[in-house]
Specification:
Elements (H helix, E strand, L loop, with lengths): L2 H6 L6 E4 L6 E3 L3 H10 L7 H14 L8 H18 L6 H14 L3 E3 L3 H10 L3 E6 L5 H7 L8 E4 H4 L6 H11 L6 E5 L2 H11 L2 E5 L7 H6 L2 E3 L2 H13 L11
Parallel strand pairs: 1-4, 1-6, 4-5, 6-7, 7-8
Antiparallel strand pairs: 2-3
Length: 255
């Protein structure tokens, strides 16, 4: 397909919204390694599996719907750090290391783009899609996206602490659509969590892609999305193939 035909082609869904964390951005080292660093600082050790289990219990008991203000966001994540450290009998000053972990988050220095993320964003941008982010994030959000060099790709950037609603609350999706001047039927949504991303976006009428770099999603979660893809680049390729026919030369994804 020639570039002139591509640019003239009418897109049925010209907007692609996406989550940020674990969709195109990841923690490097991960949150679990950051917690482990607390033990390392005291010449001690803890296993990652224990950290993961303690964090999973916290998340199961504390849904992220409260991440609607900077104060609530900080309270939530400091409570997570405190809960994990205490459950695992951290040998140091818990409050000191809660502050350390919060400072690490706020600095953004442990955040990275997945290797294929920039190329995926560039691919969608070149194909004349409008891009938006919808993320449960605090007020460091735009600064982090700017430092990662990707804010320039997005026409709309919405974080929960700025708008006072957090996924899966439909209001944050509706706010993003309103900012875009788009209807749900004109938009895709890419995210890594069915409960917080693809389920609520799909319920509004957006077409959805569940991305899973880590193989953590369950078969029924994958089945509830319109498309499943193991990376953001394959998610982007699938959207291009769906909208533009043979443009992606048969890029693979799972429906």
């Amino acid at each position: 397909m020639s570039s002139s035909i591509l640019l003239d082609r009418q897109l049925s869904r010209p907007w692609v919204f996406m989550d940020a964390g674990d969709t195109f951005v990841y923690g490097y080292p991960t949150f679990y390694e950051a917690v482990r660093d607390c033990w390392v600082a005291l010449d001690d050790e803890v296993d990652d599996a224990s950290i993961r289990r303690a964090a999973a219990r916290f998340f199961a008991e504390n849904p992220r719907t409260a991440l609607t203000s900077q104060e609530n966001f900080q309270t939530y994540f400091q409570s997570l750090y405190r809960s994990v450290l205490r459950e695992l009998n951290f040998p140091g000053d818990v409050e000191e290391f809660v502050e350390f972990l919060w400072a690490e988050w706020e600095s953004g220095r442990r955040l990275r783009l997945f290797d294929d993320a920039r190329g995926a964003l560039e691919m969608l941008h070149r194909a004349r899609f409008k891009l938006g982010i919808v993320s449960n994030w605090d007020l460091s959000f735009e600064g982090v996206m700017e430092r990662l060099g990707v804010l320039k790709y997005f026409d709309v950037a919405v974080c929960s602490c700025r708008v006072g609603a957090a996924k899966p609350d439909p209001r944050i999706f509706e706010y993003a659509l309103e900012q875009a001047g788009a209807s749900p039927s004109q938009a895709w949504f890419i995210g890594d969590q069915a409960e917080y991303d693809t389920d609520p976006a799909g319920a509004l009428g957006m077409k959805t892609v569940l991305v899973d770099y880590y193989g953590k999603s369950k078969p029924d979660e994958r089945g509830r999305a319109d498309v499943f893809a193991p990376s953001i680049s394959l998610a982007a390729a699938w959207i291009l193939q769906d909208e533009l026919g043979d443009f992606t030369s048969g890029a693979a994804a799972e429906t």
